[in-house]
């Protein structure tokens, strides 16, 4: 079902500062910056690698306010890994298959993710404490 | 510097149970099981994807005892993402380049990781709260 590790989603207090760190320390390159009001984040995607199953990124996330999900995460746990995104061929099909296994979906239907992707989150309590995202990349 | 997201390291209480979950829910396949006494873990690597820069895995980690690093992590934070491993060409060279940027290394020299890899951990306080591992895969 999983085609790739699409991205590691990392919560931070200061997006520009963290982009600078990942660029200068690890040589990653920003390929997209977006504000996602629905998710309450300002974010950047940094390219890591290409593969048969698509591209892998580091996603840096800064909350738009303390009341957002990422804002609350930062207040409770501090900076760090917020979620893991896996690439899938068809997000709706994957959601149905996973729900049939008894895993609760946070999203009832796919929503808009980074760089035009269709995404859905799974409930971390049903995935061993890992907030898990399904990512269907846009058709080329 | 980074060739791939080598793996997402996930801490869990019961390795066999979690392997079963990742296999049955997401269709991942275990390609290696090891006990790493030095790191105090029983672990499994599950294949996700192959790419130009190498292979990406989910790594499931069960502590050998509560006194290990992963045991303490579980007691403090519960199950979830423990670290992120990135593939590099030459772990010693990457360690030197990263240390030169002011990031503290947990390991002074490379040590043995999963599946014959040479690895080193970077201090999470210097990487925005993310315990970050460098992974040099063994020569084929």
Automatic annotation (TrEMBL), chains A, B:
VOC domain ranges (all copies): 4-137
UniProt KW keywords: Isomerase, Metal-binding
Gene3D superfamilies named in the record: 2,3-Dihydroxybiphenyl 1,2-Dioxygenase, domain 1
Pfam families linked to this entry: Glyoxalase_4
EC number: 5.1.99.1
Recorded GO MF terms: metal ion binding; methylmalonyl-CoA epimerase activity
GO biological process, one term: L-methylmalonyl-CoA metabolic process
Similarity-based family: Belongs to the methylmalonyl-CoA epimerase family.
Name used for this protein in its record: Methylmalonyl-CoA epimerase
């Amino acid at each position: 079902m999983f085609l790739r590790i699409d991205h590691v989603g990392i919560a931070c207090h200061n997006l520009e500062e963290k982009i600078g760190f990942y660029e200068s320390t690890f040589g990653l390159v920003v390929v997209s910056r977006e504000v996602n009001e629905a998710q309450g984040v300002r974010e950047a995607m940094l390219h890591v690698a290409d593969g048969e199953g698509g591209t892998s990124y580091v996603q840096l996330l800064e909350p738009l306010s303390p009341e957002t999900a990422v804002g609350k995460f930062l207040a409770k746990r501090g900076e760090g890994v917020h979620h893991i995104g896996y690439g899938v061929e068809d997000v709706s099909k994957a959601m149905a298959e996973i729900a049939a296994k008894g895993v609760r979906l946070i999203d009832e239907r796919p929503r808009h993710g980074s760089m035009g992707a269709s995404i859905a989150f799974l409930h971390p309590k049903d995935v061993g404490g890992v907030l898990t995202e399904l990512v269907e990349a846009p058709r080329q």
